[in-house]
Design goal:
The chain is 20% helix and 39% strand. The protein is of the alpha+beta class and 69 residues long. A 4-stranded antiparallel beta sheet has the order 1-2-3-4. A hairpin with an 8-residue loop joins β3 and β4. The radius of gyration is 12 Å and the shape is globular.
């Protein structure tokens, strides 16, 4: 189940998608879709105990925080 989705702070054109698996939280870094190419999975993070730990490691871009508030 998708828990959160946001653009990454230091990686323009990439989005973090957070899921829960077996009581842990894991993120997938996606390269955003363009006119010429579909979105693409780049990497999956290690598993974290909390969403806050994952977001601390992969911070949100400022516009993502404004949109969610």
């Amino acid at each position: 189940m998708l828990l959160d989705r946001y653009p990454l702070l230091n990686e323009p054109g990439k989005t973090m998608v957070i899921f829960e698996r077996d009581g842990k939280f894991v993120g997938q870094v996606l390269k955003n879709r363009t006119e010429k190419a579909p979105a693409k999975l780049l990497t999956e993070t290690k598993r974290y105990d909390t969403i806050d730990e994952l977001i601390a490691e992969y911070p949100k871009a400022p516009e993502a925080e404004e949109a969610s508030g």
